[in-house]
Amino acid sequence: MNAMMRVSMLVLIFAVGLSACANTVRGVGRDVRETAEAVEDSVD
Fold this sequence. Notes:
Blueprint: H1 2-43
Signal peptide: 1-22
Protein name: Entericidin EcnA/B family protein
Keywords: Signal
């Protein structure tokens, strides 16, 4: 049972880490898009 608890905790930590990475990547994509739109607006 102790090993099962460790595995469960590792899976939980891994899942939280992946969700944090997804938010970071999404934020970077949003920043790049907003920068591209600002450049397009300044050209127009």
